[in-house]
Q: What sequence folds into this?
């Protein structure tokens, strides 16, 4: 078993996929596992671009909760993928150490999310902040989760890399 495969299996054991699939239920399970709530905030794509985010989503980790900001103009399927991508970063522990609380919040994000206090933010992470390997892992996590969510219901659903029998 590859180390990537092992990490995906661990993630699925830690926070099992609901059957039948339900993104809200899954996010509630992830939040319970992490001991912090997760909220979703759709914003116009231009706002994400202005924050320096090259992708369509952004993870804002605060001291006591997590916020996933995503492109409001994308399809439901793409929205789910963006959200799962950010969850992959969370479950794989890709966050940075606590940021300097004096780091200013991007003005456009501060305008859209006025409840975000810069002092409460541990890190704001977009696609450019993780590096190639971590981005690939989160992307594969989102892809695999979406595939498994559409598979017929079975008692034991776990991640297994494509093309591997076992």
A:
């Amino acid at each position: 078993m590859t180390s990537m495969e092992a990490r995906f299996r661990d993630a699925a054991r830690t926070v099992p996929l609901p059957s039948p699939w339900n993104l809200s239920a899954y996010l509630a399970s992830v939040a319970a596992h992490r001991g912090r709530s997760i909220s979703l905030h759709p914003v116009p794509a231009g706002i994400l671009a202005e924050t320096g985010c090259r992708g369509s989503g952004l993870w804002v980790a605060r001291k006591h909760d997590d916020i996933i900001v995503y492109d409001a103009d994308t399809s439901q399927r793409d929205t789910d993928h963006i959200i799962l991508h950010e969850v992959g970063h969370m479950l794989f522990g890709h966050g940075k150490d606590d940021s300097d609380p004096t780091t200013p919040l991007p003005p456009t994000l501060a305008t859209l999310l006025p409840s975000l206090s810069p002092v409460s933010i541990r890190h704001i992470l977009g696609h450019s902040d993780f590096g190639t390997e971590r981005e690939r892992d989160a992307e594969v996590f989102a892809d695999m989760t979406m595939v498994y969510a559409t598979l017929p219901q079975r008692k034991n659903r776990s991640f297994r890399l494509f093309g591997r029998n076992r």
Notes: Strands lie at 37-43, 57-62, 65-71, 121-126. The chain has six helices and four strands. The first strand starts at residue 37 and ends at 43. Residues 3-150 form one domain.
